[in-house]
Amino acid sequence: MKKLLFSLIFVLVILSSPTHSENKIEELPPCSAILEPTKSAPKNARGVALIYNIERKFNDERTSLSVHALHLPEPSSFGDYDGYEVLAYIPKEISWIFPLSPVSNYGETTWAGNLDEVSPMMRPTRMKVRTVNTTTKKTGPIVLEKILKPC
Known about the structure:
- The protein is of the alpha+beta class.
- Helices cover about 15% and strands about 50% of the residues.
- Pfam families: YoqH.
């Protein structure tokens, strides 16, 4: 009888305690950061990074990273490059790379892209926009960057 009572109490305690994954997703608020130009970029170049948790089909939770960059020169102005990509990372731990796509409007090109495959509890601490040759995968100069404060 004592074993049955102990087992019942044990099961009730385990089942009634909340799991960590259910609560942590709410602990990370959305955040944004302004990506600043490096010395190799025009002074008008800027970007914005938006980082927030999303819920996908089948209750799959992820962190969404997106970047919107303005007033960047043509990638070819830096050499044999035809695009831009984002390098988001946590130093010595993990990195994510995703392309930016050009959207032209009134003669001005805006570069934008996103990645929705990041673990829901991870947030990059650094973000960079750099040139890339999409055929050879060779990367070039960094044009925008930011060290992100925890958010």
